[in-house]
Specification:
This protein has 288 residues and is α/β, with parallel strands linked by helices. Helices cover 23% and strands 27% of the residues. The protein has one domain: Rossmann fold (3-Layer(aba) Sandwich). The longest helix has 13 residues. It is globular and about 55 Å long. The relative contact order is 0.16. This is Cyanophycinase.
Amino acid sequence: MKKTYSVLLFSLFIFALGACSKTETASKPETTYSGGKLFIIGGGSRPASLINSMIDESGLREGGYALVLPMATTLPDRAIESGKKQFTDNGISAVGAINFIEGETPTEAQLDSVRNAKLIYIPGGSQNRFMGVVAGTEIEKAIWESFNKGNMIAGTSAGAAVMSEKMITGTQLLHPDDSGFKVIEQGNTDLAAGLGFIKNAIIDQHFVVRSRFNRLLSLTMENPNLKCIGIDESTAIVVSGNSAKVVGLSQVLVFDAQGQTAQLQGTKLGAKNINLSIYLNGDEFRLN
């Protein structure tokens, strides 16, 4: 049964919350310029210090509302509850949620709720499921319109993976039955189209905790003109333009092949002088 959620914001704004879907005519805005920010969390627990950094960077304390989009998960009610709680526990009561569902048409009121959100928050689950709902739709376009207005798009785990133009799906093409990425090989790590807010880097998450070095090293050599960014749990990067700042409890690793062509022996990849930087809380780096 479809559930409809509604939240009264500032006694004037009512969220028309419900399940919605794809339309065939939608497209991203032509421009990718914006004054918006990204808050990209590597998954895991989200301590109050991390949530407060997200709130402060978004400007939510000065007004506006947060909106939870739980389409990555098969348990949207739970994701909405926990997503809202992290805001209300830290002083933000103006929080709504919309669970868009493929196959049903979004109302203009729902799309306006997305366009005008001060902060859009995408919880974890499956990045493929999320993009399956929003890709090429008016929903995706509305998310971009919010970003281009200068608002924040935030996400954790799968919600982090969708931020880049080239999105890691989690699928191994050469070794589909393996439980982990045990090889550094060409053509094994599957990519698909993400939301595309970051065009010059690929994002990975749960990075240190789940030892995802092999797949990100493979992608670094296969995409030598892109930086590959591994964000650990309870840690985030705040992206504004081409600048990124680390906040949180752990580390962010950045691999850069510096444009060099990889060597190949069969499917095995090789490269020399790959640049690795390991950033801690408070460190800043450039995406370009």
